[in-house]
Design brief:
- The chain has about 450 residues and is of the alpha/beta class.
- The chain has 15 helices and 15 strands.
- β3, α5 and β4 form a beta-alpha-beta unit.
- The two termini are about 40 Å apart.
- It holds the Pfam family Aminotran_5.
- It is an enzyme of class 2 (transferase).
- This is cysteine desulfurase.
Length: about 450
């Protein structure tokens, strides 16, 4: 497993009673679908369901302490600010970071763009001498991989176009795992930033980050880790990872939509020029110039998603109370079952590693002779909800010579019964569409 992900999970498992208690916290799982079918939700990689404590936290904020934060002197403003900053502490602690190193964003996409535009602003001369460590020059290199979500690829393409930098990338092997052995070749003395997923949202493969980060730091490059698929499912500690930036989103870790986080080492936040400007992120404003607040407020212009941040903090506490080693072990068992069930169906091919080691419970697959969208529709008719398409990872799909896959992704509330229901329905797809099993 990659650096920063605890591996000693063998002693942790979830009993049937514990799973029932967890599932009872998620009201959507109990709602019937048309025709009285039960919900078999296997699309947590796209967005997770929300437990009652998270739903209650957001509503409670609006009912009891709704006010602007960091602005008013009245009681409600004080209570709102306390709740807002306590949430920051909870989310930061969840990844082993101090709260003053955590910046609220609208999601991981916004967090990545924040870093990319900070580089761009530094290149344009903004931020003074301290920001020059982020400035890019023609011929400097930005490194990604073929496995990246578009949100960790397109912003870097744009940064390269604005600055004259060159985009380079790690390839993936036949199983869809990032070719870490290419680190010495891909990361060079011209590399300035390496942006890498910790877990693929298509293959579920965990990236061995340690050699990539070590190589990047050896040449003086910074490293951004996309933790969208790792932070909700594995014990992640930024100190152990050793990267410079980590991004993740609330809606993939039992929290609300519209809120995410950027973690960065304090010295980097202090040197980075701001990206979005306006109220709340300033110190002194004159008609011709402005000085900016220290981080993290420097990067939080305007009215923040306060209620969502509070609920995000509750989601982090909820997962923390379950114990991330227990979560990781239970979801490892789900991954094994997904691979067994999907891999055991004739005419169905798994895209990505079929070995359950160093992966999470995200499994993409193709059904011979049936388009992924038709597969998804058939499964939906049987109450099994999966994701279909390219999952915002077109280069990776192109690498495999396919346009789309179906993807089943689990979370802490997923049951083995859910996976068996997927297998029952998936096993009938080809016959339903009249595809000869020997074609």
């Amino acid at each position: 497993m990659s650096a920063g992900v605890e591996t000693d999970t063998a002693a942790f498992a979830m009993s049937e009673g514990e799973l029932e208690r967890v599932r009872a916290d998620f009201p959507l799982l109990a709602r019937p679908l048309p025709g009285g079918r039960r919900v078999v939700y296997l699309d947590s990689g796209a967005t997770s369901q929300k437990p009652d404590p998270v739903l209650d936290a957001e509503q409670d904020f609006y009912i009891m302490r709704n006010a602007a934060v960091h602005r008013g002197a009245h009681q409600l403003a004080h209570e709102a600010t306390v709740a807002f900053e306590e949430a920051r502490e909870h989310v930061a602690a969840f990844i082993g970071a101090p709260s003053d190193e955590l910046v609220w964003t609208s999601g991981a996409t916004a967090a990545i763009n924040l870093v990319a535009y900070a580089f761009s602003n530094a290149t344009a001369g903004r931020g003074g001498q301290a920001a020059q460590r982020f400035a890019l020059r023609p011929g400097d290199e930005i490194v990604v991989s073929e496995a990246e979500h578009h949100s960790n690829l397109v912003p870097w393409q744009e940064l390269a176009a604005r600055t004259g930098a060159v985009l380079r990338w790690f390839e993936v092997d036949e199983a869809g795992r990032i070719r870490v052995d290419q680190a010495g070749e891909v990361i060079t003395d011209r590399t300035r930033i390496v942006a890498m997923t910790q877990v693929s949202n298509v293959t579920g493969a965990i990236t061995p980050l340690a050699p990539i980060i070590a190589r990047a730091h050896d040449v003086g490059a910074l490293v951004l880790v996309d933790g969208c698929q790792s932070v909700p499912h594995l014990p992640v500690d930024v100190t152990e990872i050793g990267a410079d930036f980590l991004v993740f989103s609330a809606h993939k870790m039992l929290g609300p939509t519209g809120i995410g986080a950027l973690w960065a080492r304090r010295e980097l936040l202090e040197a980075m020029p701001p990206v979005t400007t306006g109220g709340s992120m300033v110190e002194v404003v004159r008609m011709t110039e402005t000085t900016y607040a220290p981080p993290p407020q420097r990067f939080e212009a305007g009215t923040q998603a306060v209620a969502q941040a509070v609920a995000f903090g509750t989601a982090a506490r909820y997962l923390g109370e379950l114990g991330m080693r227990q979560v990781a072990e239970y979801e490892r068992q789900l991954a094994v079952r997904l691979l067994e069930v999907i891999g055991g169906i004739e005419g169905v091919r798994i895209i990505g590693p079929t070995d359950p080691a160093d992966r999470i419970a995200v499994v993409s697959f193709v059904v011979d002779g049936v388009h992924a969208h038709d597969v998804g529709q058939y499964l939906d008719d049987h109450g099994v909800l999966v994701r279909v398409g390219h999952h915002c990872a077109q280069p990776l799909h192109r690498k495999f010579g396919i346009a789309a896959t179906s993807r089943a992704s689990a979370s802490i509330y997923t049951s083995f019964e859910d996976i068996d229901a997927l297998g029952d329905a998936l096993g009938r797809v080809r016959s339903f569409f009249g595809v000869d099993s020997h074609a």
